[in-house]
Amino acid sequence: MHYQVIQGDCASYLAQTDAVFDLTFLDPPFNQGKAYAYHEDDLPSAAYWSWMSEICRKIFERTREGGALYFMQREKNAESTLRCLRESGWTLQNLIIWKKKTSAVPSAQRYGKHYQIIAFVTKGEKPRLFNRLRIDPPLPENYRHKRKQGVYVTDVWDDIRELTSGYFAGDEAIRTAQGERFHKQQSPLELLVRIILTSSQCGDLVFDPFAGTGTTLVAATQLRRKAIGVEIDPENVQCIQARLAVLRPSDSVERFYASYICTQHLERIWARKTV
Question: Do the bridges between strand 91-99 and strand 115-122 make them parallel or antiparallel, or are there none, so unpaired?
């Protein structure tokens, strides 16, 4: 088996594991006062960021030199996120803007939210690897000629739909028997495919300390990476195990392969299984 699903607290796991990570996707609770069964999501700000710093530092210690971490957060927490990572030893490579397909209604004092940040950092100044992906999005109206080789992926990701906008979640979002979304903040599979393709290779170990519904593991195992996911909620753990045991059509990464067809050495980076 190329993956492990561990039920428990990620800080406790990190304190005792001897695993060495090549890539981590960090998508923690955002301290927004959401009702989690096994986590207090309304901590004082200082306590929350102290906790995040501890997690980031422990992941840093268990990461291979040049290994990468992608830390997703609210746009309003950009300053705290970058400070947390810097003080934990990480080196910033990019602050990625994940532009959503839908936006929030403006408040009385600020613009409506239309993106989340993803801080791409590495252990050391130079990544151990960085696969320069190329995509071929629709041609803008003011462009005359179709691109022959697509375009490089930049630090603005506006081509990946979120799963948190009602019916836009589609078939991919995990749902209860009543049709409600099982997990309100499920990350889209396409997001994890891009991160894993960019910053890992076949056989690498991908880590997710807040595994949620297991999207990181679903993507990593299909791309022939090893994966470890830690999740504190036992219901979520059961969901992850069931999802990995029987792959749903909507969880197949193959539907994204054509998006990256212009990428050099794609067969090596993707590591497709031969049929």
Answer: antiparallel
pLDDT of residue 275: 41
Please tell me the distance from the alpha carbon of residue 17 to that of residue 207, in angstroms, as a whole number.
12
Chain segment 33-55, per-residue pLDDT in tens: 787 888 887 889 999 999 999 99
Residues 227-265 have pLDDT tens digits of 999 999 999 999 999 999 999 999 999 999 999 999 999
Instruction: Show Cβ contacts of residue 155 under 8 Å, excluding neighbours closer than 6 positions.
Output: 94, 95, 96, 97
The overall pTM is greater than 0.90: yes
Q: Give whole-number Cα distances, 42 to 33, 35, 234, in Å.
A: 5, 9, 21
**CATH number of the 3-103+112-139+148-265 domain:** 3.40.50.150
Strand runs (DSSP E) across the chain, as ranges?
3-7, 21-26, 63-73, 91-99, 115-122, 134-135, 151-152, 156-157, 205-208, 226-231
Half-sphere exposure of 274 (CA within 13 A, CB side): 1
> Which residues, in sequence order, are CB contacts of 128 under 8 Å at separation 6+?
22, 64, 65, 66, 67, 68, 122
On whether the CB atoms of residues 183 and 236 are closer than 8 A, the answer is yes
Burial bucket for residue 105 (CB in 10 Å: 0-12, 13-18, 19+): exposed
Structure tokens at 18: 């001897």
Low-confidence ranges of the chain (pLDDT < 50): 275
